[in-house]
Amino acid sequence: MAADEHEHHENHGNSIAAWTAVVIVTLAFVIGSFAVMTATVWLFWACIGLCAVGVLAGKVLALMGFGVHADDASSADVA
């Protein structure tokens, strides 16, 4: 195995954009699970839409500069 096959990452996606997307999508899944248990179809589909909103919010925030920058992720020790 070559030494350059495994990259060392200091920052595992810890950014405002990533956490915002994760929180919104997790909330959508929790509420969507409740909707499935209670057979509330409209709430289920609303949660599907909320998942899409979470993904879009994360992407928009990343484009606005709140994501992990390439120079931050590549600051690992190079042996």
Task: Please describe what this structure looks like.
- By secondary structure, the chain is mainly α.
- 66% of the residues lie in helices and 0% in strands.
- The chain contains three helices and no strands.
- It has helices at residues 16-37, 41-66, 70-73.
- Helix 1 packs antiparallel against helix 2.
- The longest helix has 26 residues, at 41-66.
- Mean pLDDT is 84; it is low at 75-79.
Range of helix content: 55-70%
Low-confidence stretches: 75-79
Distance between the termini: 14 Å
Mean pLDDT: 84
- DSSP summary: helix tally: 3
- Major β-sheet, in short? none
What class do helices, strands and sheet pairing give?
mainly alpha
Number of DSSP strand runs: 0
Quaternary organisation:
single chain
Taken as a percent bin, the fraction of beta residues is: under 5%
- State the order of secondary-structure elements, H for helix, E for strand: HHH
Query: Which value, in Å, is the CA radius of gyration?
Result: 18 Å
Instruction: Indicate the overall shape.
Output: elongated
